[in-house]
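notes to self, project folder thing:

trying the whole complex as one job this time. last attempt i did each chain seperately and stitching them together was a nightmare. two parts in total, labels are on each line so i dont mix them up again. if this works i'll redo the older ones the same way
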Amino acid sequence: DAKTTQPPSMDCAEGRAANLPCNHSTISGNEYVYWYRQIHSQGPQYIIHGLKNNETNEMASLIITEDRKSSTLILPHATLRDTAVYYCIVEDNRGGSNYKLTFGKGTLLTVNP
Amino acid sequence: GAGVSQSPSNKVTEKGKDVELRCDPISGHTALYWYRQSLGQGLEFLIYFQGNSAPDKSGLPSDRFSAERTGGSVSTLTIQRTQQEDSAVYLCASSFGGLSNQPQHFGDGTRLSIL
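result (full assembly):
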């Protein structure tokens, strides 16, 4: 039962900002939004997470809409090494097992030279 | 700092053999998770350890699968009498506590191939 919707693929020019959208219209008020990425043959890499406020760290920025039904991950200056599958995940707090992360199909971001 | 370490990185074995996969979590992380990822598929939750609490084993696919976490640190996932459908990448993650707002950090996995 997917809780997030992401475009299957996106392209971005090297050096430009990459804006990856995610819809999570059924999110509950206390559920966090997490972003991970996975480069071929590596484990998922944590990027950023948030609840209500916009967040920024050394890797990316996370913009969450006021109604919390969607969010956007922003890579400010994409490089070729940012080519990966990006996963938007909403934790499932039902039943007290919010630690079971469910990865959907994600967005394949291809950064082009 | 050191991340989650898994060994071996690759394992090839014959059907019917037992295998042990090891995970060293990030120092200080009390929560540890095992997932597996089959080719082209999403992550499948297997088991969750949090401190001294009883582990959540609800994701283990059969009684051939078991896991231990000794001393609240290193964990071993054991698969007995391996089958070809066990072929997958087995991923371990750890977090500082098992609550919300504590992101899980993953190792690079063990790629298991059953011949």
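what i see at first glance: Chain B has a mean pLDDT of 93.
need to look closer tmrw
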